[in-house]
Design a protein that fits this description.
Helices cover 19% and strands 39% of the residues. The chain is α+β, with helices and mostly antiparallel strands and 166 residues long. It has a single domain, classed as Thiol Ester Dehydrase, Chain A, CATH 3.10.129.
């Protein structure tokens, strides 16, 4: 049972979060599935995401964003309580195995395989029908554990800019 202020990572929470991330919403990313082992989100085919008009293939940047978002959700342990924290992508490596099929939704499955106090490591795969037949794979490293709060805008060295200097 979650403690006060904590919440489990659920499909509903992921779906809600995706609609509130402007880039994810613009891409049309949707919740697909979550288990104790992985998180899946999907990218519906949309002509505005096509990178090559001659083939109709989705741009690799959209696949990268899909994998980055799925990996970010996998940082949290599904079903366990989680305090709101900021998650920053430190490293994201994408290996493309082949193009996505035009007209088809792409699914990304991500699994966390190692956690430390402040760094989390995730693997992911983008596919149509089976993770065993990938369009692309990723490995990602995230900084975690930072309280999710805003900080005042400061200039260099942590000093607030002088009034009127921007």
């Amino acid at each position: 049972m979650p403690s006060d202020g904590a919440h489990p990572v659920t499909g509903e929470a992921i779906a809600d979060h995706l609609t509130n991330i402007p880039h994810a919403a613009a891409l049309g990313l949707r919740f697909h599935d979550v288990t104790e082992h992985y998180v899946e989100i999907s990218l519906p085919y949309d002509e505005k995401l096509v990178g090559d008009p001659d083939t109709g293939v989705i741009h690799g940047g959209a696949i990268t964003a899909l994998l980055d978002n799925a990996a970010g959700f996998a940082v949290r342990v599904p079903g366990e309580e989680a305090e709101p924290i900021a998650i920053a992508t430190l490293d994201l490596r994408i290996d493309y195995m082949g193009p996505a099929t035009p007209g088809r939704e792409v699914i990304a499955r991500a699994t966390c395989f190692k956690r430390t106090r402040s760094i989390t490591f995730v693997r992911g795969v983008a596919y149509h029908d089976s993770p065993d037949d990938p369009i692309a794979t990723c490995t990602a490293t995230f900084m975690t554990g930072t309280p999710n709060s805003t900080r005042p805008l400061t200039g260099r060295g942590g000093v607030r800019p002088a009034e009127g200097t921007g």
